[in-house]
C-alpha cells in the first residue's frame, strides 16, 4: 500500500476501535479479575485446602478471551500501520502487555490443568508464541519511533522511511524501558515454555510462583496506569497529535459490546455449577428412546425454584 511520509497532516483522526473506553475497560477488568482468581488459586494451592474447580474454569475462560483479543488487536495495529499513528499503536502495545500478564498469571495458577491434556498444553503454547512474536514486532516499531523521534501525526510505518529528528527529552528512559520489555518478553516466554512442559519442579518452585505473580501484577498495574494516562478516553493524550473527530470516551454499542462479552465466562461457569451442560448417558439413543417416558409430551421433570415453591403444576397438561 502506497503512503506519503512527506506530508504531515494537521490533525489525527480518533480511533475508538482500539482506544475507546469500552475496549480499554474490557482489557483492564479482565486483567484485574484474572489476577484475583490466579492469586486465590495459588494461595489455596499453598494451603492445599481445595482445588477450586469453579475458579479454575472461570480463570481459564477469562484468560482465553484475553489472549485472543490481545492477539487480535495487535494484528489490527500491524495491518493498519500505514494509517495508524504512534499514539494508537502505543496504546495497542500497552494492551498487549495486559494480555501477556493475564496469560502468564493464568499459566502460573493452572499449569497442572494444561499438563493433564496435551491438546490444551500445545494450544496454550501456540498462543504464547504468536503473542510473543506480535509483541516483539510491535515493540520494535515503538523503539524505532523513539529512536527517530517520529512526527506524532505520521503513520507509524513511516518510521522506516523518514530521517531522524533528533532525540526527545525522555528518549533515554523510553528506549531503556522498551528494550527491557522486549527482552523480558523473550526471557519470560522461554521460562514459561519450560514451566509448561517440565515434568517435575524443585521444592522452591512455590515461592518462585508467588514472586512471579507479584511481578506480573506490577506489570499489569504499570500498563494500566500508562493506558489511563495516555488515552483520550480517560486521560490526556499529547497535544501534538491534535486528535479530531468523535471522542474516544463516547459510549456506543461498539464500546459496550466488549464489556457485555465479559459476562459469557460467568454465565458458562454458572451453567457448569448448576449442571446445565451435562450430556445424556452415552447409551441413550435420542432417535429410539422417547424423551417423555410417560407418554405425555407436556409432562417432564422440573426443578422448582426453592425461593418460590413448586411450580410443577404449570408444566403439566
UniProtKB/TrEMBL annotation:
It comes from the Eukaryota. The keyword tRNA processing does not apply. PANTHER family: INTEGRAL MEMBRANE PROTEIN. The keyword Amino-acid biosynthesis does not apply. Keywords: Membrane, Transmembrane, Transmembrane helix. The chain crosses the membrane at residues 24-46, 91-114, 126-147, 171-196, 208-229. Residues 302-317 have a biased composition (Polar residues). Residues 295-317 are annotated as: Disordered. It comes from Ophiobolus disseminans. This is Uncharacterized protein.
Amino acid at each position: 500500500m502506497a503512503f506519503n511520509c512527506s506530508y504531515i497532516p494537521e490533525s489525527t483522526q480518533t480511533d475508538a476501535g482500539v482506544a475507546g473506553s469500552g475496549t480499554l475497560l474490557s482489557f483492564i477488568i479482565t486483567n484485574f479479575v484474572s489476577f484475583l482468581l490466579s492469586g486465590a488459586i495459588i494461595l489455596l494451592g499453598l494451603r492445599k485446602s481445595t482445588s477450586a474447580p469453579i475458579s479454575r474454569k472461570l480463570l481459564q475462560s477469562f484468560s482465553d478471551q484475553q489472549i485472543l483479543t490481545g492477539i487480535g488487536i495487535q494484528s489490527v495495529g500491524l495491518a493498519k500501520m500505514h494509517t495508524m499513528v504512534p499514539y494508537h499503536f502505543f496504546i495497542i502495545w500497552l494492551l498487549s502487555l495486559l494480555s501477556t500478564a493475564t496469560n502468564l498469571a493464568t499459566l502460573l495458577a493452572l499449569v497442572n490443568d494444561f499438563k493433564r491434556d496435551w491438546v490444551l498444553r500445545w494450544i496454550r503454547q501456540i498462543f504464547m508464541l504468536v503473542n510473543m512474536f506480535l509483541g516483539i514486532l510491535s515493540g520494535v516499531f515503538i523503539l524505532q519511533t523513539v529512536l527517530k523521534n517520529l512526527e506524532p501525526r505520521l503513520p507509524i510505518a513511516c518510521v522506516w522511511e523518514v530521517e531522524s529528528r533528533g532525540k526527545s527529552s525522555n528518549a533515554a528512559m523510553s528506549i531503556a524501558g522498551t528494550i527491557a520489555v522486549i527482552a523480558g518478553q523473550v526471557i519470560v516466554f522461554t521460562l514459561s515454555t519450560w514451566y509448561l512442559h517440565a515434568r517435575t519442579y524443585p521444592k522452591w518452585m512455590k515461592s518462585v510462583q508467588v514472586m512471579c505473580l507479584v511481578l506480573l501484577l506490577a506489570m499489569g498495574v504499570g500498563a494500566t496506569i500508562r493506558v489511563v494516562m495516555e488515552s483520550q478516553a480517560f486521560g490526556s493524550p499529547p497535544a501534538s497529535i491534535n486528535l479530531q473527530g468523535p471522542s474516544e470516551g463516547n459510549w456506543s454499542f461498539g464500546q459496550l459490546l466488549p464489556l457485555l462479552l465479559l459476562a459469557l465466562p460467568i454465565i458458562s461457569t454458572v451453567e457448569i455449577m448448576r449442571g446445565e451442560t451435562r450430556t445424556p448417558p452415552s447409551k441413550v439413543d435420542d432417535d429410539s428412546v422417547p424423551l417423555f417416558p410417560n407418554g405425555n409430551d407436556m409432562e417432564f421433570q422440573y426443578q422448582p425454584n426453592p425461593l418460590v415453591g413448586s411450580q410443577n403444576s404449570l408444566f403439566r397438561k
